[in-house]
Design brief:
- The chain has a domain of 63 residues.
- 52% of the residues lie in helices and 0% in strands.
- It has 4 helices and no strands.
């Protein structure tokens, strides 16, 4: 059976400055992360969307050593809490 090399969009640790979003995007598309950073800075200066785009990427892109994003981790924690009643016993899954 052959293995497929599937590229995954992830926040990287190599070349990370803040959260690794730009370096992850650069690695995924095969461009220098500094070009992504410059593009993001231009979008921030002229449209104000750059910070929001970066924040969304930080929340939705999983870390390279994780399978889930920050948002997915929060959703999973909330679901685990909702399955546990006040006595600490697990409720059955529907």
């Amino acid at each position: 059976m052959s293995e497929y090399n599937v590229k995954k969009l992830r926040r990287t640790h190599k070349g990370r400055i803040i959260a690794g979003v730009c370096s992850g995007i650069g690695e995924y598309f095969g461009v220098d992360a500094n070009l992504v950073r410059i593009a993001l800075a231009i979008v921030t200066i002229f449209g104000g969307l750059g910070v929001g785009v970066y924040a969304i990427g930080w929340l939705l892109m999983p870390d390279e050593y994780s399978d889930t994003s920050i948002v997915q981790d929060l959703i999973n924690k909330q679901q685990d809490r909702s399955r546990t009643d006040w006595s600490g016993e697990q409720k059955p899954m529907p």
